[in-house]
């Protein structure tokens, strides 16, 4: 579920246009912050989740911080998380529901942050609240919709979610409210967005057929894969280790 099987970036973009668009926006808005031209820098700061600006009626700041990041490592870490966990949900929920879950969790987490932490000097950026919203949907599946997620993917979701929660409280200068409340929002809206969802199967492994509503399998699916099941399990745990290492480095630097 979380192993990327796409053969190229072009193929990834074709299969998962919403995730791809969000990542492109991440990169472009990060460039706004580093380009040494006043106009670009001003545009970046117009999007920061500044509580001073929100108290003065700049309500777009509930949305724009979701797409902004505080540096290259921050942007890469969140974008990598989205590449890993976004595609399956985009395919399962559909473009509109996925975007609703992602933006909705991020915006409501930012609104909650503003209410709980109303300091006029507080400001924040980052997609973490929205990404934790996706975790909320996954954890709901693990708990109540086991037919939508296999046991191996369930274990990976829970391990990485626990790591993310631990890092939330260990790392300084992090928006704890957005992480926790983003997850809560994702979990609460999961029954709505998962209505009508079906288990995820990588698009490139699907056999073309007239859709009659039944879930079908490509009989050659496993023949197309080069690696053994054991190798893939090791690869998944390698991903977890890499995430932990990146998270630790991000916490240190």
TrEMBL record:
InterPro entries: Peptidase_S54_rhomboid_dom (IPR022764), Rhomboid-like_sf (IPR035952), Rhomboid_protease_S54 (IPR050925). It comes from Ornithinibacillus hominis. It is found in: Membrane. The chain crosses the membrane at residues 12-39, 59-86, 98-116, 122-141, 153-170, 176-197, 234-252. Its main location: membrane. GO terms for cellular component: membrane. It holds the Pfam family Rhomboid. GO terms for molecular function: serine-type endopeptidase activity. It is a multi-pass membrane protein. This is Rhomboid family intramembrane serine protease. The keyword NADP does not apply. Residues 57-194 form the Peptidase S54 rhomboid domain. The keyword RNA-binding does not apply. Gene3D superfamilies: Rhomboid-like. GO terms for biological process: proteolysis. Keywords: Hydrolase, Membrane, Protease, Transmembrane, Transmembrane helix. Belongs to the peptidase S54 family.
């Amino acid at each position: 579920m979380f192993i990327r099987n796409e053969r190229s970036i072009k193929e990834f973009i074709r299969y998962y246009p919403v995730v791809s668009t969000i990542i492109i926006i991440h990169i472009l808005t990060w460039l706004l912050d580093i380009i040494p031209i006043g106009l670009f820098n001003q545009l970046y700061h117009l999007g920061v989740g500044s509580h001073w600006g929100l108290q003065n009626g700049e309500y777009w700041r509930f949305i724009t911080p979701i797409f902004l990041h505080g540096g290259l490592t921050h942007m890469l870490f969140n974008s990598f998380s989205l590449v890993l966990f976004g595609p399956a949900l985009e395919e399962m929920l559909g473009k509109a529901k996925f975007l609703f879950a992602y933006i909705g969790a991020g915006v409501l987490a930012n609104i909650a942050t503003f209410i709980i932490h109303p300091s006029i000097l507080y400001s924040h950026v980052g997609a973490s609240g929205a990404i934790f919203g996706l975790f909320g949907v996954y954890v709901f599946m693990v708990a109540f919709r086991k037919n939508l997620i296999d046991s191996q993917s369930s274990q990976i979701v829970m391990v990485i979610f626990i790591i993310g929660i631990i890092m939330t409280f260990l790392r300084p200068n992090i928006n704890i409210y957005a992480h926790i409340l983003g997850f809560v929002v994702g979990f609460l809206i999961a029954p709505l967005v998962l209505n009508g969802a079906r288990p995820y199967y990588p698009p490139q492994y699907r056999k073309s057929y007239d859709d009659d509503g039944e879930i079908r399998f490509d009989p050659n699916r496993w023949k197309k894969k080069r690696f053994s099941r054991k190798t893939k399990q090791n690869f998944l745990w390698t991903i977890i280790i890499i995430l932990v290492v990146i998270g630790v480095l991000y916490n240190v630097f």
